[in-house]
Amino acid sequence: xxxxxxxxxxxxxxxxxxxxxxxxxxxxxxxxxxxxxxxxxxxxxxxxxxxxxxxxxxxxxxxxxxxxxxxxxxxxxxxxxxxxxxxxxxxxxxxxxxxxxxxxxxxxxxxxxxxxxxxxxxxxxxxxxxxxxxxxxxxxxxxxxxxxxxxxxxxxxxxxxxxxxxxxxxxxxxxxxxxxxxxxxxxxxxxxxxxxxxxxxxxxxxxxxxxxxxxxxxxxxxxxxxxxxxxxxxxxxxxxxxxxxxxxxxxxxxxxxxxxxxxxxxxxxxxxxxxxxxxxxxxxxxxxxxxxxxxxxxxxxxxxxxxxxxxxxxxxxxxxxxxxxxxxxxxxxxxxxxxxxxxxxxxxxxxxxxxxxxxxxxxxxxxxxxxxxxxxxxxxxxxxxxxxxxxxxxxxxxxxxxxxxxxxxxxxxxxxxxxxxxxxxxxxxxxxxxxxxxxxxxxxxxxxxxxxxxxxxxxxxxxxxxxxxxxxxxxxxxxxxxxxxxxxxxxxxxxxxxxxxxxxxxxxxxxxxxxxxxxxxxxxxxxxxxxxxxxxxxxxxxxxxxxxxxxxxxxxxxxxxxxxxxxxxxxxxxxxxxxxxxxxxxxxxxxxxxxxxxxxxxxxxxxxxxxxxxxxxxxxxxxxxxxxxxxxxxxxxxxxxxxxxxxxxxxxxxxxxx
Length: 658
Hints:
Layout: H1 24-40, H2 48-63, H3 77-93, H4 106-126, H5 134-163, H6 208-223, H7 227-247, H8 256-261, H9 264-296, H10 301-327, H11 336-353, H12 360-393, H13 407-421, H14 423-440, H15 445-455, H16 465-485, H17 491-511, H18 513-548, E1 556-557, E2 560-561, H19 563-584, H20 592-617, H21 625-630, H22 635-642, H23 652-657
Antiparallel strand pairs: 1-2
């Protein structure tokens, strides 16, 4: 488009000087007519304007049929009158009268903007006619009016964007969950900011009438050929407003080196702040900016996409730089869940920055976001898989006192519970990791042969990559606990240890629906079966010798009870029972249900057997001191003593004796 022969704007808002004319007489006559119209000062809705506009439209229609630019047509007087009416409208808006300001009467604003577009059409239609001809001079005149009008409209557009920013509500903080994983505590999950009603879902909170005004102004500017100026004003204003909204969230900037050297406690806090800001952008700021652009530039999808991508890019790149720097920090177990939080945050950011109508820049931004997320996912997979090495390397030769739950068991199960709270995300990052590994494979002949062999038969049902790794960890933990159980010389204590750890694992499984889903019912049934077997083995190792004392074999010869043998049998029973009580009252069974099950099962075999033995043979001991010497326990004492077992309390026996 050729520029009209007018003086240049100053900053896009200065008033344009009237183009010098080659005909001083015409200029003088025009000045007289301009003063006459100014004195009349007709309102925008003056009845004369529609008629004049209609005349101009007729002239434009005729110009469309005039192809010979060397033969300029006559320009009707209505065209000059129309230009002066538009100038008068601008003067009325600039008069200082509040009631006449732009935006006070939307209907009049519409008439004005339609007139400005008509001036633009007039200027474009008059382009190319010889300079000095009436048509050529009117080209310059209309260009001067248009530039003055656009300078005014641009200022008003900026005012609409800037003055309404006071409507933007203060941001409220996002609710967060508990702090990150701690091996000494049982938490339900790693912290993750959760969205709650913040009162700023309507960001940027312009009133509907203001947005409608913006749309009318933008449409007029674009129609008049001032798309660049319109987009620049909108872009600068919204970029400043967006930056202000982000800064309110309190995010700091750090270099890569700073993040690499940062202590985890400090970095964890910065990650939480980052998550908060990115979620705010995903849930509120970016959708709000896109909605505004769509409302203002409704009929111009390319402008919508361009405006949004330009605004979003700087912020998103800043977010991605932080994420990639964090992914490069030294990996450790406690970082896993923060990495997963960041991965989820970036994953949720993607829909906010991309849409089916997005331009190449938004698609590029989406790709970069996915790449940063992939790096976090790879770091998370690496950290989780390192749990396997941690279990393998735990080769302590010192048994846990009293057969209690091993710290490795509690740590591992709490860690797995955490991980399974992120089950869907863990499945996602492991699948991505598997695809990356496949892409990195060399495809050797041997691998190809194996592949062909596998394809020749129906593939078996396979666990997901995450479930496979989880199963590997559980199997390693089982093997490790079995090895550690052999550190106990007492076989009974070995089975108590296995029961304690097995029950702890099973209860953690039952308490987490997610880990139960991953491991499945078959695994849980196998675990329950193992526990029952440990229980039976414990009873056999501990109580079989005691029960042997309560059998009839060897007590009678030819139908007569041999008292010395009977006395020795009672002495042996008392010694064995005392020793078991003394030893096993110090053993620990923390799980109340398991402790109760053990006591009940012991009582179920011991009390009936002892009561029967006592009923059959106590009569053969002389009443009095002899009976008291050998019959140390009554049946009810047996039950009371059994109830002292597994309390982890060495004073039980002392209290019994006192």
